[in-house]
Amino acid sequence: MAKFNLGTVILLGTVLGSALAHYSGPFLFWGVSDLKGVQVSALEGLDDKFLRDVYSNAAAVVVFLRNGTAKLNDDNFPSFRRIIEKHEYVYSAQEELSSNPLDYNINAEIINLVGSPVQQDVELAALYRDSTANYGEHKVLGILASRWDEPHHKLWKREAKQDDSATSTTPAGPTEEPVMEDAIYNGKDKAIIYMTSAPVLSINSTDEESIVLNKHTTVTYDSREGESTLMVTFKTEDTTKVTLKFRFEIDAGYWSMPKVDVQLIDTKSKDTSKTPDTTLEISEADTPYAPLGFSYSCSRQLVFRNGSTVLTLENIQVQPALENGPKFGSAWDCIGFTTAPIWSGLFVTSFMAVGLALAICAILDIKPPNRFESRTGKQLTFTVQE
């Protein structure tokens, strides 16, 4: 392996889509087998589709941001060197990443390395080892970049027209995630959630603290054996970004959605580390579930809660583990085949049927006389015994 010396890191500032951490290349990718044999163009960098596939295939993604100008060499980063020697790695001198890792992997996180190069080296090695212990060896994608805190630096996305050359670098404006104002959340055509109205999140169970989540940006889906997650990121009017993680469990030919994780991030804060998730649960009787291949539909209000935090879903249809693209299977309705009005109708009908049967029996029990009077015959007499 060639000597590990990347030179001085270039600080050209860029923005990572969902976070406010400004960072730039060059970039070092390591840790997953997808990087084996990858050739990097010195002018164009890594292919965007390849990056998205690497993000999605990794069990987790950890982005390390350095805030120093010390050289990345054996003397300053000996522990990191030992990690690199054990994994496949790719070095790219590109100034920016065309895809945001947080948009394609629900287990992606950003870590700011602080202190001297030696401290950064120890922190990087320890945190990466923790990630591999949680998700498995050669399953965690590590990315090393340079942090830049100047807010005026922006990431400019290159957009080339069909008649433009592939090397065009004319900026088309700052990168912004598209905002959608519907309540249809499609995760890679593998899971869909549809609601007639936007979800409502109440932080303290009061109307004043309620957040109507009517604008979402990214939707990602992660599927694993026995469990999968649909993650939807919402944009709010204030400085809070809300992420809902709908958790699906699959067992014995049925799927269920018993929990929703909620994550709140203050986008104005300089701290880009993720806040702990709040797990909301629904009562067992109201838990959405259906056989595999079927969707779940409910016109009632579904309420997930954890203490004072409440998530309300209205008139929902949902289905994970889709096999035929973005199309719901037959609906498994939460109301079922017998409702309170149906039971009331059956009870009243049964009561009337019993009354009718008694009336018919009473009529059939009437016995008319077998002899009748005539003008020429003798008068009939009846003896009544008390």
Automatic annotation (TrEMBL):
<keyword id="KW-0472">Membrane</keyword>
<keyword id="KW-0812">Transmembrane</keyword>
<feature type="domain" description="V-type proton ATPase subunit S1 luminal">
    <location>
        <begin position="190"/>
        <end position="320"/>
    </location>
</feature>
<dbReference type="GO" id="GO:0033176">
    <property type="term" value="C:proton-transporting V-type ATPase complex"/>
</dbReference>
<dbReference type="InterPro" id="IPR046756">
    <property type="entry name" value="VAS1/VOA1_TM"/>
</dbReference>
<dbReference type="Pfam" id="PF20520">
    <property type="entry name" value="Ac45-VOA1_TM"/>
</dbReference>
<dbReference type="GO" id="GO:0001671">
    <property type="term" value="F:ATPase activator activity"/>
</dbReference>
<dbReference type="GO" id="GO:0030641">
    <property type="term" value="P:regulation of cellular pH"/>
</dbReference>
<comment type="similarity">
    <text>Belongs to the vacuolar ATPase subunit S1 family.</text>
</comment>
<protein>
    <submittedName>
        <fullName>Uncharacterized protein</fullName>
    </submittedName>
</protein>
<dbReference type="Pfam" id="PF05827">
    <property type="entry name" value="VAS1_LD"/>
</dbReference>
<keyword id="KW-1133">Transmembrane helix</keyword>
<dbReference type="InterPro" id="IPR046755">
    <property type="entry name" value="VAS1_LD"/>
</dbReference>
<feature type="domain" description="V-type proton ATPase subunit S1/VOA1 transmembrane">
    <location>
        <begin position="336"/>
        <end position="373"/>
    </location>
</feature>
<dbReference type="InterPro" id="IPR008388">
    <property type="entry name" value="Ac45_acc_su"/>
</dbReference>
